């Protein structure tokens, strides 16, 4: 029986990042046919947005070196979007060759992470995104923008809210249709989430991407929903983020999110049983148990 | 830097259940001198309420068979309360012999759990509590009442809110100063929490006790704080609850709670670094890593 809560949306879109953000951070390299089946199972469970893979150079992310082959194999269903991460123009070319209709770019909210992850300054990273976004739009391809380190980073501490808003607004200004505000190291708390979303003026084009490193992801999601956000990133079974620590998790687990949303009577279109069985199936292939609490609880029973 | 959130209390009392609810559910039997040091470290970290042990029969809970000896050894500090769980009059006698000034009784919100855990009906359980509470009050001993299975139980499904309120109000009517509403199997979601607390009319004598079995404990805590609750039960390092599953947790971890409260600028009087080092110290003695996300994240760094 659902128990709705005042001030929350009636429907939430879960943006599934498992095949890309999850698998790119797993130690195991998963065979392409397993990836294709994984994505197919996710669509079967009701997902309408599944970030499929990334055209980042295989030198950096060998786990996703099969991006082209995966897209060729993929059984694309009507009504399901399969965005692909694209780091630069070369990546965009490859995405276009493979008939991709939605891409995502990856920006930093902090100077240090821009330097370390993108080899750019906070300011000059936009020179990299500008041609990617404008050429994508010319081809009718929608662009989502990730902003990482929105709540803090390991070098600079808490990220100033106005700095995140400035980065985000430049990305929206380029023509991105959605901003995913990432708590990459999982340090945020609910009041910080509310303050950041309110600072954007409108939650309309915002999504949230929480990591569970400090156990805060679901509480933060609740705060984001109250602030009007209706798109929440999550990863099947909580895969990715922190592959080397046995029981640590990175990404918010889709199942833990869906448990909360179902309890609140918020529609997602997702079938929790199918999600759990997909996570259990995938865990067997990854050779480690799912870090999702819901998967652990339901897989036992 | 804290980011406060509208409608939350300025100060929260963390009711620490680790030494009792945590250790009674651990497979390991911890030596009494380790327990005494554990409790001392908790007081040192700023705790003002530490549930120390239980006078339940050692046949049922061998882990706490040393309750009397522990209380004798305990260095009770001024300003710190050390409540003890008491199941019946025999337990109360032993608690009084050991100079206990605060006890807790353990009730069920559902018929099936009353039968299985207390060997009583939902209605007849009060015959057991009545003499315990009235004699305790005659001795100037305060009584907290736990109500378990407030959100659902494994046999009956969701627990009707009016049934929880009826049980809770009878316990308050006996003279209990505080009701701890327990989500023993961890199935609750935030709207359910709000509805239950509101059904009580006033949150004043309510505490909440969440389990993280489905990852919902912190989101539910946020809902409880919004509904006016200012006492939250938690267990150091998340110990207890589910000792036989490697990475599953039962009780909400004190550190994960304190991370959220600190981020929200809510005072607790607790020193997070000392809590984490206590959990790390205890994990060594229990021979398994702490399931707390915050402990895992901070102990690495």
TrEMBL record, chains A, B:
<keyword id="KW-0479">Metal-binding</keyword>
<keyword id="KW-0456">Lyase</keyword>
<protein>
    <submittedName>
        <fullName>Hydroxymethylglutaryl-CoA lyase</fullName>
    </submittedName>
</protein>
<dbReference type="GO" id="GO:0046951">
    <property type="term" value="P:ketone body biosynthetic process"/>
</dbReference>
<comment type="similarity">
    <text>Belongs to the HMG-CoA lyase family.</text>
</comment>
<dbReference type="InterPro" id="IPR013785">
    <property type="entry name" value="Aldolase_TIM"/>
</dbReference>
<dbReference type="GO" id="GO:0006552">
    <property type="term" value="P:L-leucine catabolic process"/>
</dbReference>
<feature type="domain" description="Pyruvate carboxyltransferase">
    <location>
        <begin position="12"/>
        <end position="276"/>
    </location>
</feature>
<dbReference type="GO" id="GO:0004419">
    <property type="term" value="F:hydroxymethylglutaryl-CoA lyase activity"/>
</dbReference>
<dbReference type="InterPro" id="IPR000891">
    <property type="entry name" value="PYR_CT"/>
</dbReference>
<dbReference type="GO" id="GO:0046872">
    <property type="term" value="F:metal ion binding"/>
</dbReference>
<dbReference type="InterPro" id="IPR043594">
    <property type="entry name" value="HMGL"/>
</dbReference>
<dbReference type="Pfam" id="PF00682">
    <property type="entry name" value="HMGL-like"/>
</dbReference>
């Amino acid at each position: 029986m659902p128990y709705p809560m005042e001030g929350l949306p009636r429907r939430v879109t879960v943006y599934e990042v498992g095949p890309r953000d999850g698998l790119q951070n797993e130690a195991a390299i998963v065979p392409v046919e397993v990836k294709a089946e994984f994505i197919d199972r996710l669509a079967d469970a009701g997902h309408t947005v599944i970030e499929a893979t990334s055209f980042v150079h295989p030198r950096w992310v060998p786990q996703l070196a099969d991006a082209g082959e995966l897209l060729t194999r993929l059984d694309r269903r009507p009504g399901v979007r399969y965005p692909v991460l694209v780091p630069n123009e070369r990546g965009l070319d490859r995405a276009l060759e493979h008939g991709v209709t939605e891409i995502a770019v990856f920006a930093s909210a902090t100077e240090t992470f821009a330097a370390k992850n993108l080899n750019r300054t906070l300011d000059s990273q936009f020179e990299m995104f500008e041609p990617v976004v404008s050429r994508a739009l010319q081809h009718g391809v929608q662009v989502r923008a990730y902003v990482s380190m929105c709540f803090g980073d390991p070098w600079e501490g808490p990220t100033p809210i106005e700095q995140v808003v400035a980065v985000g607004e430049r990305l929206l200004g380029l023509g991105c249709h959605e901003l995913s505000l990432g708590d990459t190291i999982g340090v945020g708390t609910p009041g910080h989430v509310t303050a950041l979303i309110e600072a954007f003026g409108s939650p309309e084009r915002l999504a949230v991407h929480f990591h569970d490193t400090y156990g805060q992801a679901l509480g933060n999601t609740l705060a984001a929903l109250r602030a009007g956000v209706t798109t929440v990133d999550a990863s099947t079974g909580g895969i990715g983020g922190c592959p080397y620590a046995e029981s640590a998790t990175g990404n918010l687990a889709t199942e833990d999110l869906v448990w909360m949303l179902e309890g609140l009577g918020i529609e997602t279109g997702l079938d929790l049983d199918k999600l759990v069985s997909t996570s259990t199936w995938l865990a067997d292939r990854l050779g480690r148990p799912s870090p999702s609490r819901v998967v652990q609880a339901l897989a036992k029973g």
